[in-house]
Amino acid sequence: MMMKRWFLILAAVVSLSGCGYNDFQELDEASKSAWSEVLNQYQRRADLVPNIVATVKGEASFEQDTLTKVIEARAKATSIQVTPETLNNPEAFAKFQQAQGELTAALSRLMVVSERYPELKANQAFRDLRVTLEGTENRITVARNRYIESVQDYNVLARRFPTMITAKIFGYDPKPNFSVQNEAQISVPPAVDFSAPKKP
Known about the structure:
Layout: H1 2-17, H2 21-57, H3 64-79, H4 90-114, H5 118-122, H6 124-159, H7 163-170, H8 183-186
């Protein structure tokens, strides 16, 4: 009788240790922490935009349409309320990701267009802001990569047996991850032609 009781206790301990509940808690917190760092870097970039816009406005002939797109993209990106639930809602996550992508594209366009303005390129404040923006974009990439890795670890645990049983019981659904908006477009290799142009 005593031996049977000890066997049941031992079996319960072994089954609980293999259920992955604590692993889910650890990986969920890791993904939230990684996501917070992504948001931190997005906020850093959003905070830079007004300074960049103010500096560029000093160039009277600068293309107003480009500036307007940057301002609108920043407003849209910062208007989306991000909560912990965003990480578990693929639609909200995609909407947030799209808004950040639009801001990235608008800022890239601004930097490309600014090359045509020698006075702006010579402006030390603009050069400093540009370097800071490039550094921030690199930080965003690193933070996103860390988040992608943490979500991968979580999702593997949620799908692997026997921890998938714990995931189903406690509602630990796989988390959405970053994706590329124009995946079909960028998967096509660029056409490169080194032949000399035809003479008329």
